[in-house]
Amino acid sequence: MDISISFTLNGVEKTINPTIVNSWLIVIFLSIAFILIGRKFKKMSIKDKPKGIYHVAEIFVEAVDNLTAATMGKANIGFAPYIASLGIFVAFANLLGMIGLKPPTSDYNVTLTLALITVFLIHFNNIRFNGAKAYVKGYFEPMPILFIINVLGDLATPISMSFRLLGNILTGVILMTLVYSVFNGFMAILAPFVTPLLHAYFDVFSGLLQTFIFVMLTMVFISNGIGDREEI
Question: How many angstroms separate the CA atoms of 228 and 73, rounded?
Answer without folding.
Answer: 9
